Fold:
Amino acid sequence: MVDSEFQPKSGNESPRFAMPSTFMRLPSRESAKGLDVAIVGVPLDIGTSNRSGTRNGPREIRDESRLLRPVNLTTLQAPFDCLKIADVGDVPINTYDLRKSIDLIDGFHARIAKQGAAPLTLGGDHTISYPIVRALSLLHGQLALVHVDAHTDCNDAMFGEAMTHGTWVRRAVEERLIDPRRTAQIGIRGTTYTGPDCTYGEEQGFTMLHAEDCWHRSISRDMDRIRSIIGEGPAYLSFDIDGIDPAFAPGTGTPEPGGLTSMQGIEIVRGCRGLNLVGADIVEVSPPWDSGRITSLLAATIAFEILCALPGVEAA
Ligand code: MN
Ligand code: MN
Structure:
């Protein structure tokens, strides 16, 4: 049992609308030393191609996360009893320079990983997953990837730029940061500029679960299959909130109708339990486009479910 120092402040001890906004009102720490999991924010939106606003994502997700309680009512898991988890704040990105920001994000996550903690990162646009995966693969070796998204993020370039929120997966494959045969993309849909953007993943050997494959049903069985494909090696979960339908998650920059439900989003994360997750992120939450903060609350809920899916978190 972990020290009470690492428990979120209970809503019965201090009202939920009180206190600074750390994730779930966990303790704030300067470094990840001694932690099992570090919650990180990356307030970046200069890699987006459409609507911006994800620079406000980490703040709003933390703010809505105060509504969560520490025990998962369904699985009876209590992640804060099993792991030392604290909020290490935000990466001080350079908002005028995407490439410099990428190096800052890489360095910040490399430090966390070397200190022995798994980062759970709140974005931020999807560009941030590239430096995180780069940092983690250097330490752990090539990663498996579970990628929830409406988009493949496999464009070769956008507006002539190689590094954007829509190109990061292709870069990660090219640089062998991720293993394409142990990569699954879930929730892909909508429209694109050219056909080949959409076939890149198949050609590389990705397991694809398009949104239409998921309509009107539970996808727990598909997660069983994805888990068996990925196996035991180090794995990363990247959850773009636009994988979820805009009816549930309107607060995002590139919404696509016909997406996954909140329920399927939770099924995906619970289906990652058993993987050797060495890090995860929830990205593309854009509060200025949100409605009643439902997107931030869903992102906070997904982040909590990710904590429950980590190795070492048992049911109470
Ligand atoms: Mn994405
Ligand atoms: Mn997307």
Observations:
- The mean pLDDT is 96.
- Strands lie at 37-42, 85-90, 118-123, 143-148, 178-188, 207-210, 234-240, 276-283.
- Residues 149-151, 240, 242, 254, 284 surround manganese (II) ion (ligand 2) (CB under 6 Å).
